[in-house]
Amino acid sequence: MKQLNKDMVDVVKRPVKVLQFGEGNFLRAFVDYMFDICNEKGLFDGSIVLVKPIEFGSLENFGKQDNIYTVSLRGRVDGKPSVQNRIITSVSDTVGVYEEYDRFMEYARLDTLRYIVSNTTEAGIVFDESDSFSVNPSKTFPGKLTKFLFKRFNAFNGAKDKGLVMLPVELIDDNGIELQKCVNKFIDLWQLPAEFKAWVNDACNFCSTLVDRIVTGYPRNNEQEIFNELGYEDKLVVTAEPFALWVIESKKDLSDELPFVKAGLPVIYTDNQKPYKQRKVRILNGAHTSFVLASFLCGNNIVRESMEDDLIRNFMDATIFDEVIPTLSLPKEDLLNFASAVKERFNNPYVDHALLSISLNSVSKWRARCMPSFLGYVEKTGKLPSHLTFSLAALMAFYSSTELRDGALIGKRGSEEYRIMDDKEVLEFFKEYSSKDTKTFVHAFLSNEGFFGQDLTKVNDTEAAVVTYLDEIKELGMRKAMEKNF
User: What one-character DSSP code corresponds to residue 300?
Assistant: First the structure.
């Protein structure tokens, strides 16, 4: 079978407009996919240079395939299974920072360059005062970016129209603001000119963004099946779900020069992306955290099974529509549409999303994803949200174990063992308290301000409700306890 390359597809040569720190699956199935569509529709006319910003990894397959690859979107669209394959031709070059530093830095002198995209993991946007200006390359991503911007500033004599737009997608709050702070700290640390600092802060635009698409990556378990489906071999093929959302917060209107919306793509330009992040965290992530532990103890193993289980699906629906959405600030129609999309995403026939993988660090996840809705509901109604309250009891039941082995608590589902993964202090708490009587156990957990940032026993009758739910789970089992209450 022939390997995908430029001889198999019409590739239009376009000016380089985007430099992308990161060549991984997510950016290729999300950002590069969107630019490719804009190019096809005659709205952008630009290509992307992929930068490998770390020492590890290889760009070999990009060379073999002339930087061309396939994105295969697999999921439900309008309730029906859907597969959409697209050959991406928006990438024109790849460069390794460590292997080809001088060639990488030459892109700073490129007149057509306008955008910097990055996905260097949550730990990538960091200031490290030990990072050196004299070392090529600098070890941190913000350090590399600072030196790149400095070279561009000098190459164009500080021209205001040669400033760049930064579009980081790292999963941290206010990623653009944090990246700008790091760059400014490096400018100060390295004693770079005040004129350069002014150019960075005035001529450049650091956007904070929110991204949402489940990218399952290279299909290692069924690659030959997909190659047969495509009719060619593609060692860079990326699988992902059809749903996507990119929220871009900018101090300047970018909608004309970045024509994603005109191309019909799911991009929102705003001066405040926080309500959209709140929506995602509390509906999408909050739904996961609220039902997965109960679902696992009911006998399910993946998210799709949970959606096919009437008891769990109805529990999730009530959590989202009755307890979470009423606490959010965006227009109700917008929230309902997003929630409907979430349900469709959870029922993806092409993704086996393991409940145990979602269960990692559930105590901190409950605090971040569920507690704001829990407290917001209490504040708004004066009552406890029954499903979110039950999710606390389900969490405690899932985590109940006195056996700590190889860095994990060992839980039991019938005769089957499962590993409970969380921070050491969390695991040690449950090892000590889960064997105590229910009232003692619940009081110790809910009053632990290290877990919740406050004492939840002081919120209405939360403690009594969780004691009742947990006793029922212990006595009846998870499924019968849920059937009794919901």
Answer: -
Provide the residue type at 358 as one letter: I
- Amino acid (one-letter) located at 77: V
The CATH number of the domain where 210 resides is what? 3.40.50.720
Under 8 Å between Cβ of 152 and 162 = yes
Identify any residues that bridge with 408 across adjacent strands, giving them in sequence order. Answer: 405
Query: What is the structure's pLDDT at 171?
Result: 87
Domain extent at residue 465: 275-485
Clarify whether residues 282 and 392 are in a common domain: yes
**Using an 8 Å Cβ cutoff, are 402 and 338 in contact?**
no
Q: Which residues contact 357 (CB under 8 A, 6 or more apart)?
A: none
User: What's the pLDDT tens digit per position in 233-251?
Assistant: 999 999 999 999 999 999 8
What digits encode the pLDDT tens for the residues 295-310?
999 999 999 999 999 9
- Read off the CATH number of the domain in which 393 is found: 1.10.1040.10
- For residues 260 and 267, the answer to whether their CB atoms sit within 8 Å is yes
DSSP letter, residue 322: I
Looking at the structure, tell me whether residues 267 and 307 fall in a common domain.
no
Same domain as 342, residue 327: yes
1 assigned to some structural domain: no
Please tell me the pTM assigned to this model. 0.90
How far apart are alpha carbons 72 and 238 in whole angstroms? 6
Q: Of 235, 256, 271, which marks where a domain is finished?
A: 271
Is the peptide bond between 259 and the residue preceding it cis, with omega within 30 degrees of 0? no
Single out the residue in 271, 306, 336 at which a domain terminates: 271
Strand partners, 355: none
Q: Is residue 364 classed as helix, strand or coil in its secondary structure?
A: helix
